[in-house]
Amino acid sequence: MIMPASDSPNNEIRPVATPAEAASAIASRRALLQRRQLPFPAEETGVVFEDEHIIIHRDPVGFPGGKFGTYIRIHERAIQNGVAGVVILPKCGEDVFLHRIYRYPTRSWEWEFPRGFLEPGHSPEDMVRQELQEETGLTVATIEELGLVLSNSGLLSGGVKAYVVQTQATAGKPAPEAGEVIGELRRVSPARLWSMAKAGEIRDGITLSTMSLALAKQLLAPPA
User: Fold this and answer.
1) Would you say 153 and 181 are in contact if contact means Cβ atoms under 8 Å apart?
2) Contact 101/116 with Cβ under 8 angstroms?
3) Is the pLDDT of residue 3 over 50?
4) How many other CB atoms are found less than 10 A from the CB of residue 123?
5) Are strands 159-167 and 83-92 parallel, antiparallel or unpaired?
6) Are 113 and 149 in contact (CB under 8 A)?
7) Which of 37, 38, 114, 158 could pair with 84 in a Cys bridge, judged by C-beta atoms 3.0 to 4.6 Å apart?
8) What does pTM read for this prediction?
9) What is the mean pLDDT of the chain?
């Protein structure tokens, strides 16, 4: 029998409330690092790293049961009202477009839907049009919002807003940013899309989540 989890605040991880709790959290982390023979960080808590894209926080927290420790949280600078970027499921009729993109962290080429961070002064819908044009050369005809995808709710503070876009049948020339390496644009049927996912050709979590949302909202044909 599966018992439902309680939504009580006592069952949640919370920021520490007092200096004594903060000291307990730091002491607990130091003890953990010592047991694992790992070096102590220069910054125990607070902002431990930042650049033009992200801010990494190490927060002192209280865990259910009364114990204390620390928790890493990555805040994307692009985030606006919980939304850090957009992901686009481009369609032409019932067919779907994917592109190949080289991902440096995994050192691999991946089949994905186009996506990108929000930019100041731009709405998510603005970014849908911009990212689609830059990464695929496709032009937007209609836009429909799917929902918010949290790609890693245990680490990232923001999510990406997913959209289904009907496009024009032909694509212009992509104009990716200098830091992006984008390859082939492929038009596939829904059946082929699901078979690529089943075969492990599509591995990106945001792309797979967007497919699932579109399926749930009957905007993508189901697997055969």
Assistant:
1) no
2) no
3) no
4) 13
5) parallel
6) no
7) 158
8) 0.84
9) 90
